Amino acid sequence: MQVPIETGYIKLDSFLKMINAVGSGGEAKLVISEGYVLVNGSAEIRRGRKLYPGDRVRFQASEYEVKAA
What we know:
Blueprint: E1 2-5, E2 10-11, H1 12-18, H2 25-33, E3 37-39, E4 42-43, E5 50-51, E6 56-59, E7 62-68
Parallel strand pairs: 1-7
Antiparallel strand pairs: 2-5, 3-4, 3-6, 6-7
Helix pairs in contact: 1-2
């Protein structure tokens, strides 16, 4: 699924909240730190990781592509 962003980048924790994959920033921090989120095929444990258009995020059974709006 493609997800458009209005800015040049979005932080990973904010992205997970934006797509309603998590209910809060605390939940985002937990799933990221536990290694449940993949960015471009690799586990990402930094919640502040900047995502740019073209990046792919996989969480649970869903994959999202960051797209410029």
